[in-house]
Amino acid sequence: MRKLLQLVSAAALIATIVPSVMFLTGSLDLSQTKLAMLIATIVWFIATPLWMGQPPEQLEHEEVVL
Amino acid sequence: MADDQSQPTGEFEREPVTQRSLLGFKSFIGMYAGEHCAGTELMLGPLFVAAGVSAYDLIVGLLLGNALAVLSWTLLTAPIAVRARLTLYYQLEKICGRKLVTLYNLANGVMFCFLAGSMITVSATALGVWFDFPMPGLNDVYPNSVGWVLAVLAIGTAISIVAAYGYEMVSRIANIAAPWMVLVFLAFGLVGLKEFIDVNNSQINSLSDLWHLAQTSIWKGGEPLEGQVKFTFWYVTFFAWFCNMAMHIGMSDLSVFRFAKYSWYGIATAAGMYVGHFMAWISASMLYALQLHNDPVNTDVLPGPLAYKACGIAGLICVIIAGWTTANPTIYRAGLAFQAIVPNKSRFAVTLFTGAVATIAGMFPAIAMQLLGFVALYGLLLMPMGAVVFADFWLLKRLGLQPYYADHRGLSFNWAAGLTWFITLGICLGLVKSGIKINGFEPFQIWFVALPGWFIATAMYIALSKFYQQRTT
Lengths: 66, 473
Known about the structure:
Chain B: Keywords: Membrane, Transmembrane, Transmembrane helix. Chain B: GO terms for molecular function: cytosine transmembrane transporter activity. Chain B: This is Cytosine permease. Chain B: The chain crosses the membrane at residues 58-82, 103-131, 146-166, 173-193, 232-250, 262-286, 306-327, 348-368, 374-395, 415-432, 444-464. Chain A is mostly helical and 66 residues long. Chain A has one domain (1-47). Chain A has helices spanning 2-25, 30-47, 56-65. Chain A is elongated and about 40 Å long. In chain B, 69% of the residues lie in helices and 0% in strands. Chain B is globular and about 75 Å long. The longest helix of chain B has 37 residues, at 303-339. In chain B, helix 6 packs across helix 12 (303-339). By secondary structure, chain B is mainly α. Chain B is built from 18 helices and no strands. Chain A binds chain B through residues 12-13, 16-17, 19-21, 23-24, 26, 30-31, 33-35, 37-38, 40-41, 44-45, 48-49, 52-53, and chain B through 172, 175-177, 179-180, 183-184, 186-187, 190-191, 193-194, 311-315, 317.
């Protein structure tokens, strides 16, 4: 689960910067860029607190409980 | 700019850090990269443009100035830190005595309050986008609308209450937000660059095309805006070098690097300098240059609207988080500094009081709008004590004098250190006021004077120690 969350966070980070790169190259307009960055931001702040700063064993325990 | 939010606390306050508690190189990279991507970067970048900086002066000045800052940490701060492995405060107490350290705490706390105030100002500009109240202009000194006062009050109160309860939660949010925030800062620059290309109908096919655009449209140089000092190469270089002077030459980061295995870990500060004080400043300055390009009359330096135009709500969130996560620990630290002066008061009450002072300071836009000068003053104020630590550690014993003299003699106020601090500051401020010109250039402006000041302080501490130790031994 921890690895999956880390993958989601990594994807969110990439999705935070890629829209502005695409805007620079003319592949996205500014409103699309802003929307994509907002979605990436939401995903980052939902996924990352679930693993960053959490001890791995606590996550494992929660998985068992769930 | 940054505060010392990531300093390890609660351990080894009055004893050397043990070998088992040392941290790896990566810890310092992460700490500095996150710490120096703060809310104030969104003010400082635009203020360079307001100061009429040119492309060459900005880019090369920042490259050189940040390199000098990294070298200062690596060659001045870290070598003492890994040998003594003490906090700055404990080391100062051993050199200066408890009463002089209390005075140092007071000066540090007051400057922290104003710094936190400017961070609250930055966050409040984001609320202005949502609530559309009049916001302060570049040369405003006093608050200019009820909406502005209420916005600063709301953010300042919230930050102060959280700081009073302890900032562990905000510290965690800061750590989580750091990687994302760095990328949003980068996005500011990319979006700003694209908009510049579009408004100029430029074709960028090579680096020389990009450099041409930077020189002719983004950082054109020329006269500064009204009320601002013209910044050229040496101004940018010295500002980048000295803006964290309190931390490196002033030795505040002894408390951080006492956990380093080797002194070369000081180069980890490059992560903070070249992410925060290079990329972030350049990105933020591009957004402001674009605003001026589109509307030369609109000189307002307002991070909220600038970020919103570039990156929408994600940009606004970045402004709020960048301001909040740095103001919060700054208020907490200022509270701790003040509590050392009034130990019978609770930390909760002192932090709330500190937050109130910072909030009131944040209502006055003059501090944030004149941040270039304020930051230089902050470094200058604490620099002489860094010189005292340096001379005490490396030179006194070799000159036949007693280091850690207050500790050795049981003094509460080492007059050699105290007078070094006061007289150096007096000389430096006198030089700034003198307006002395050499070939039409003022070498003793607030941005430069700390360099001769450090040598004055070092020499004075040695001379005064010789006199003082002979009299009191």
